[in-house]
Design brief:
The complex is a heterodimer of chains A (163) and B (591). Chain A is of the alpha/beta class and 163 residues long. Chain A has a single domain, classed as Rossmann fold (3-Layer(aba) Sandwich). Chain A has helices at residues 22-34, 53-58, 100-109, 135-154, 158-161, and strands at 6-11, 40-44, 59-69, 77-81, 116-122. Chain B has helices spanning 56-59, 67-71, 79-94, 100-130, 141-151, 159-174, 195-223, 251-281, 400-409, 413-425, 436-466, 519-523, 535-540, 552-560, and strands at residues 3-5, 16-23, 31-38, 41-49, 232-233, 236-237, 296-298, 301-303, 313-315, 318-320, 337-340, 388-391, 486-495, 498-507, 510-517, 572-573, 584-590. In chain B, the strands form six sheets. A five-stranded mixed beta sheet of chain B has the order 1-17-2-3-4. A three-stranded antiparallel beta sheet of chain B has the order 13-14-15. In chain B, strands 5-6 form a two-stranded antiparallel sheet. The two termini of chain B are 24 Å apart. Classes of the chains: A alpha/beta (163), B alpha+beta (591). At the A-B interface, helix 2, strand 3 and helix 3 of A face helix 4, helix 7, helix 14 and strand 16 of B. Strand 3 of chain A pairs parallel with strand 16 of chain B, so a sheet runs across the interface.
C-alpha cells in the first residue's frame, strides 16, 4: 500500500496521565478550531506502538505532536525535523515498550519514512494520573497550534497558504 | 553499551552479586527486576513496577457506560481487552445480555488481537532472545534456502530472497546505524542457532511487519480501531449489521474478513509455527528452566453462546494446581480472588497483612520506596506498584501456558492434539510444558487454534445475517432509570498475556468503585503476606546467567510471559539523540 500518500497530524500520548496527553489534546482542539482541512487527517494515536507503523509508512507528510522530554523548563516547545527526531530501539522487558522512536527506526530501515516528517513536542510539567493539563502546558497549546498551522502551510495546504 | 555501575565494594572471590534490569524507555521506568546471582545461577528475584498505574480513581463517579473508553487508554497494546472486560463488567452488574451478533463480533475482534499480538510478540520481542542478528551475516543463502524449504512450503524461500535479506542487514551494519539492533547481546555464548537459522528468523521478522500491516485491517473493520477501538457499547456493539448497507457488516465485508483470517492462518501455520519448532529444537535445555509455582489460572473466553455459563466458553475456564493436568481443572470461583498489598506501595485501612476482594478493593498509594535516583529497592518492605493477587491464597501463572494447560486438562480436543504433536516433534515429555520453552510453545499452539477457529465464527455471523437476524445491540436497559440503585458486577476476559478481570460497583447510576486485576499483576506479583513469591520471581530461580553484564537468560524467561506494563507514559526522550544509545540501566553490585 506504499502508493497511498497521506498527510497526517498525529497526536501521541496518554489522556489519563495529564500532560502526557498534550499531543492528543492538541489534535482534538485544532481539529475543532481549524475545522476540516481537505487532504489533512487528524489522528489520535494514543499510546499505540507498532500498530502505527502502517500509518507512518502510508504518509508522505507526517506531523507528530507529543509530550517530549528535552530536559527543558516545563511548557517549552521543541520542534524537530526528520533526522533530528530520535530513533532507536532498546533492550526491553515488554512489547509494550515499543516506542514511537522504534516505529520510526523500523520505517527508516524499510526506506518508508515520510518525505516530510516533523515533531512538535512540549515539555510536560506533570504526568501523574489525571485528565487535565497543567496550566503551563495548557498555555503552550496555543503555540503548538500556531506552529502546526505554519507547518501545514509549508506543506502547501491551500487553505493555510492563503490564510 | 549499557551504563554499568561498577562495584561499590570490591570483594574477592565474587560469589554473590545483585543485578538490576531497569529499562528507561520513557521518562520513568515501569518494570524492574532485582536479581541475586550466586555462582552464576539466580538465587533470588524481586519484580517491581516502578510506576503507579491505578486508573481506578479516575473512574469513580463516572457513568459506567463510559468506563470502557477510559479503561482502553490504560495501554496502547491492550486497548481491546480492557474495552471488553469493562463492557462485560457493566453488563454483568446490570443483567444485560448482548445479542448473538455482538458475541460473534467480539469473539472475532479478540481472536484477531490474539493472533496479531502473539505473532508480533514472537518476532519483535522474543525472537531476539534466541536469534543472533549479527550471526545471520555469516549465513549461506543457499543453505538457508534449503533449511527454509525443509521446514515449510512458505513461498519466500529462494537463495536469492535470503541473499537480499542478508544484504539489507549488511546495509544497516555498513551505514553505521545498527541503530535498531545496537543494544542486543549479539555474540552472547547462550545463542545457539546456526547462522542460517538466524538469517531465516530475521527474514521472517521483516515479513511479519508487512503481514501485521495487512492483518490489522481485520480489527479496523470490526473495531474501528484507529488505534483505539470505537465500536464497543454496553449491551452490544456500535456497528450495524445490514445486508444492504455499505457502511455496515455486510456480505462483502465478511468476504474481506474471511480473506484476512485466511492470510492470518497461513502465516501462523507456515511461518510462525515452523520457526518456533526450529528455534525450540536448539534450546531444549529451556524445557527444564523457568517454570513457576505450578499453579495456573484461566478465566477462559470466546463464548459459544449467550448464556453467560462458563461451560459455554470455547477456551475453557479453570484452575490447574501443582502441574496436575491428569484431572479436570477446578472451576473458577471469583470470590476466591484477593489482593495483598503487604509488599506493594498501597495501604488498606485495616492494615496491610490481610487481603481484599476486588469489590472491596482500595487504591490508596503509600509510597515508601527510596527517592530516585537510587541503586536498590528496599525489598524487605514494600517494593512495587503492583498488588499481589492470589487465588485461594496461591500465586497463579496466567497467559497462554495457563490457558493451554487448563484446556488440555479440560479435554479440549484440538489443543490436546497440537500439544502432543509439538511434544513429539521436539522429542520431549509433558513435563517440558512447565517451563520457559513450554510457555513459548503454548503461545504458538494457542495462536494456531484461534486462527483456525475464526472462520467458524464468520460462518455463524453470515448465517445470522442470511436468516435476517441483524440485532447487534440490546438497548432495553440503556437508560440509568432502568437500573437498580445498587449493582455490582465483574467482567472476565483473556487478554493475550493472561486473565483479565474488571470489577465494578454502581450506585445511583454512577461508578462507586472500580478495580481491575490485569494479567501482569498476577505474573509480576510481588511477595504476599507469607513471603510467597510471584510467578516471575519464582520462575527466575535457578536460571544460569553466563554474563551478569548481559543477562540474556533472565530476559528469555521474563519475555516468555509477555509482560504488559503500564504503557501509560510515552514521552519522547529527546535528551539523547545518539542512535543506538542503550536505554537500559544495569547496575551491578557485589553483595
Amino acid at each position: 500500500m506504499s502508493d497511498i500518500k497521506r498527510k497526517v497530524v498525529l497526536g501521541l500520548g496518554n489522556l489519563i496521565n495529564k500532560d502526557e496527553g498534550v499531543g492528543i489534546h492538541a489534535v482534538y482542539r485544532m481539529r475543532t478550531f481549524l475545522g476540516p482541512i481537505p487532504g489533512v487527517e487528524w489522528v489520535d494515536g494514543g499510546v499505540a506502538g507498532l500498530d502505527l507503523l502502517a500509518l507512518v509508512e502510508e504518509c508522505s507528510h507526517l506531523l507528530v505532536l507529543d509530550a517530549i522530554d528535552a530536559g527543558l523548563p516545563a511548557g517549552t516547545m521543541v520542534e524537530l525535523e526528520k533526522e533530528q527526531i530520535p530513533r532507536f530501539m532498546g533492550i526491553k522487558l515488554s512489547q509494550h515498550q515499543v516506542s514511537f522512536q522504534e516505529v520510526l527506526a523500523l520505517a527508516s530501515w524499510r526506506e518508508k519514512l515520510p518525505s516530510y516528517l516533523h515533531l512538535l513536542g512540549i515539555q510536560p510539567a506533570d504526568i501523574s494520573l489525571g485528565l487535565d493539563l497543567s496550566p503551563v502546558v495548557k498555555t503552550s497549546l496555543l503555540k503548538m497550534s500556531q506552529y502546526t498551522r505554519n507547518i501545514l502551510s509549508r506543506w502547501g495546504i491551500p487553505e493555510l497558504v492563503t490564510a | 553499551m549499557p551504563t554499568i555501575y561498577l562495584p561499590i565494594v570490591e570483594t574477592s572471590p565474587i560469589t554473590k552479586q545483585r543485578i538490576v534490569i531497569d529499562p528507561i524507555t520513557r521518562i520513568e521506568g515501569h518494570l524492574r527486576l532485582e536479581v541475586t546471582i550466586e555462582n552464576g545461577v539466580v538465587s533470588d528475584a524481586w519484580s517491581s513496577s516502578t510506576m503507579f498505574r491505578g486508573i481506578e480513581p479516575i473512574l469513580k463517579g463516572r457513568d459506567p457506560r463510559d468506563a470502557w473508553l477510559f479503561a482502553q487508554r490504560l495501554c496502547g497494546v491492550c486497548t481491546t481487552v480492557h474495552a471488553i472486560a469493562s463492557v462485560r463488567a457493566v453488563e454483568n452488574a446490570l443483567g444485560i445480555t448482548a445479542p448473538d451478533n455482538a458475541r460473534l463480533v467480539r469473539n472475532l475482534v479478540e481472536a484477531a488481537q490474539f493472533v496479531q499480538d502473539h505473532v508480533i510478540h514472537f518476532y519483535h520481542l522474543h525472537a531476539l532472545d534466541w536469534v543472533d542478528i549479527v550471526s545471520s551475516l555469516s549465513a549461506d543463502p543457499n543453505a538457508t534456502s534449503s533449511l527454509a524449504q525443509s521446514i515449510s512450503d512458505w513461498p519466500n524461500s529462494s537463495p536469492q530472497y535470503f541473499n537480499d535479506v542478508k544484504g539489507r542487514i549488511q546495509a544497516l551494519v555498513d551505514s553505521g546505524q545498527l541503530g535498531l539492533f545496537a543494544n542486543g547481546y549479539w555474540g552472547h555464548p547462550a545463542y545457539a542457532l546456526p547462522p542460517e537459522g538466524n538469517l531465516l528468523a530475521v527474514a521472517h521478522y521483516l515479513e511479519a511487519l508487512d503481514w501485521q500491516r495487512e492483518y490489522i485491517k481485520f480489527q479496523v473493520t470490526l473495531g474501528g480501531k484507529n488505534p483505539h477501538p470505537q465500536t464497543y457499547l454496553v449491551g452490544g456493539m456500535a456497528l450495524p449489521v445490514d445486508q444492504t448497507s455499505s457502511a455496515a457488516i455486510n456480505p462483502l465485508k465478511i468476504a474481506q474478513l474471511r480473506s484476512l483470517a485466511s492470510k492470518g492462518l497461513d502465516f501462523v501455520s507456515k511461518v510462525y509455527i515452523p520457526d518456533l519448532l526450529l528455534v525450540a529444537s536448539f534450546y531444549k535445555e529451556w524445557a527444564n528452566l523457568g517454570g513457576a509455582s505450578g499453579n495456573y489460572l484461566s478465566f477462559g473466553d470466546f463464548p459459544n453462546d449467550n448464556s453467560g455459563n462458563p461451560a459455554s466458553l470455547w477456551l475453557p475456564q479453570g484452575v490447574v494446581f501443582n502441574k496436575d493436568i491428569s484431572i479436570p481443572p477446578q472451576p473458577v470461583d471469583q470470590d476466591l480472588i484477593q489482593e495483598y498489598v503487604t509488599h506493594s506501595w498501597y495501604s488498606y485501612p485495616e492494615g496491610d497483612l490481610s487481603p481484599r476482594h476486588p469489590y472491596q478493593g482500595e487504591t490508596i498509594p503509600n509510597y515508601t520506596g527510596p527517592q530516585p535516583p537510587y541503586n536498590y529497592l528496599q525489598v524487605e518492605g514494600k517494593y512495587t506498584w503492583l498488588k499481589a493477587p492470589r487465588y485461594n491464597d496461591q500465586a497463579m501463572e496466567v497467559g497462554p501456558l495457563a490457558r493451554m494447560l487448563v484446556a488440555y486438562a479440560a479435554g479440549h480436543t484440538r489443543v490436546k492434539d497440537l500439544v502432543s504433536q509439538v511434544l513429539s516433534k521436539l522429542s520431549v515429555g509433558p513435563e517440558a510444558l512447565f517451563s520457559t520453552l513450554g510457555r513459548v510453545a503454548a503461545r504458538g499452539i494457542e495462536t494456531l487454534v484461534i486462527a483456525e477457529r475464526m472462520g467458524g465464527w464468520l460462518d455463524e455471523l453470515e448465517a445470522n445475517i442470511n436468516n435476517g437476524d441483524l440485532a447487534i445491540h440490546n438497548g432495553a436497559l440503556w437508560e440509568p432509570t432502568t437500573w437498580p440503585q445498587n449493582a455490582v458486577g465483574y467482567g472476565m476476559t483473556e487478554a493475550p498475556r493472561g486473565a483479565l478481570g474488571h470489577w465494578v460497583r454502581i450506585q445511583n447510576g454512577k461508578i462507586e468503585n472500580y478495580q481491575m486485576v490485569i494479567p501482569t499483576t498476577w505474573n509480576g506479583s510481588p511477595r504476599d503476606h507469607n513471603g510467597k513469591r510471584g510467578p516471575w520471581e519464582e520462575a527466575l530461580i535457578g536460571t544460569p546467567v553466563a554474563d551478569p553484564d548481559q543477562p540474556l537468560e533472565i530476559l528469555r524467561t521474563i519475555h516468555s510471559f509477555d509482560p504488559c506494563m503500564a504503557c501509560a507514559v510515552h514521552v519522547i526522550d529527546a535528551r539523547d539523540h545518539k542512535v543506538g544509545n542503550s536505554r537500559q540501566t544495569l547496575y551491578i553490585q557485589h553483595v
